[in-house]
Specification:
Blueprint (H helix, E strand, L loop, with lengths): L4 H7 E3 L2 E6 L11 E6 L7 E7 L8 H15 L3 H9 L11
Antiparallel strand pairs: 1-2, 2-3, 3-4
Length: 99
């Protein structure tokens, strides 16, 4: 994921978490889209933590962000062997194609 400084500031939630807006099929305008929360760490794979429909919930709370950051720290600390085990057990999903 490549972002310039302006993009980083615009979408940054702090602590390496970023919000990305997505267009949803059937959604109309910004209010009909979705938001995703991503964990970004230099030199590490991007981690897709959370997806929510904007019309269901406008934003995540501060408490939710703290929990998502904790989850990101845990996932970013896993070895490739651990990640492979979690993917095999269906507890983690690796997205390899563009969505």
């Amino acid at each position: 994921m490549s972002m310039d400084k302006q993009g980083q500031q615009r979408y940054a939630l702090g602590a390496g978490l970023y919000k990305l807006r997505l267009a949803s099929s059937g959604g109309k305008g910004k209010s009909g889209g979705s938001r995703t929360i991503l964990a970004v760490k230099q030199g590490e794979p991007l981690i897709w933590l959370h997806l929510l429909k904007k019309n269901d919930k406008g934003n995540v709370t501060t408490g939710e962000l703290k929990k998502l950051k904790t989850l990101a720290d845990i996932l970013q600390g896993l070895s490739q062997v651990d990640i492979d085990k979690l993917v095999k057990r269906g507890e983690l999903l690796e997205v390899q194609d563009y969505v």
